[in-house]
Amino acid sequence: MLARVPIFAALSKDQLAALARLVVRRSFPRGQLIIREGDTDAALYIIVSGQVAITKKTSPGVPDVRLSTKGAGDFVGEMTLLDGSPRSATVSALAPTECLVLTRWVFNTTLRSDPLIAVAMLPYLSRRIREADEAKSKTPG
């Protein structure tokens, strides 16, 4: 399952196996909050089964805006895993959902023991930066 997450796609089988030993499986009932916008808990959630909604607050008194829906094989929280910044959106279970959870603390410990994991992730991170830059350049204003 970890190999399907783009941030880990370039890792070797041994590196993936090391990370796989550290993930925790968690279940969330329908309607349960998984991630709250603004929280500082840093973990990656890989959706094994179920479905989640990703929403964002716009302004007080206005309903949250749904940004996307994710299902089995998708993931959320990869940027907070890397930078530790507060969560930028809320994620809640639309159906009973099972996730593999990799915390930032465990991930950083793994990086210290095998820095080549970080090197293997660089192409993905560079691609994300390029995509963000392209999106900014297309935005009027």
Explain the overall architecture:
By secondary structure, this protein is of the alpha+beta class. It has a single domain (2-136), classed as Jelly Rolls (Sandwich), CATH 2.60.120.10. 33% of the residues lie in helices and 29% in strands. The protein contains four helices and eight strands, in the order H-E-E-E-E-E-E-H-E-E-H-H. It has helices spanning 13-20, 78-83, 104-113, 116-138, and strands spanning 24-28, 33-35, 43-49, 51-56, 65-71, 75-76, 90-93, 97-103. The strands form two sheets. It has a four-stranded antiparallel β-sheet. The protein has a four-stranded antiparallel β-sheet with strand order 2-7-4-5, with no helix packed on it. It is globular, with a radius of gyration of 16 Å.
Show unreliable segments: none
Count of strand segments: 8
Biggest beta sheet attributes: 4 strands, antiparallel
Q: From the alpha carbons, calculate the radius of gyration and give it in angstroms.
A: 16 Å
Order of helices and strands: HEEEEEEHEEHH
Q: Which term fits the overall shape?
A: globular
Counting copies of identical and different chains, the oligomeric state is single chain
Query: What distance lies between the first and last C-alpha atoms, to the nearest angstrom?
Result: 40 Å
Compute the number of helices: 4
Question: Main traits of this protein?
Answer:
141 residues; alpha+beta; Jelly Rolls; four-stranded antiparallel β-sheet; 8 strands
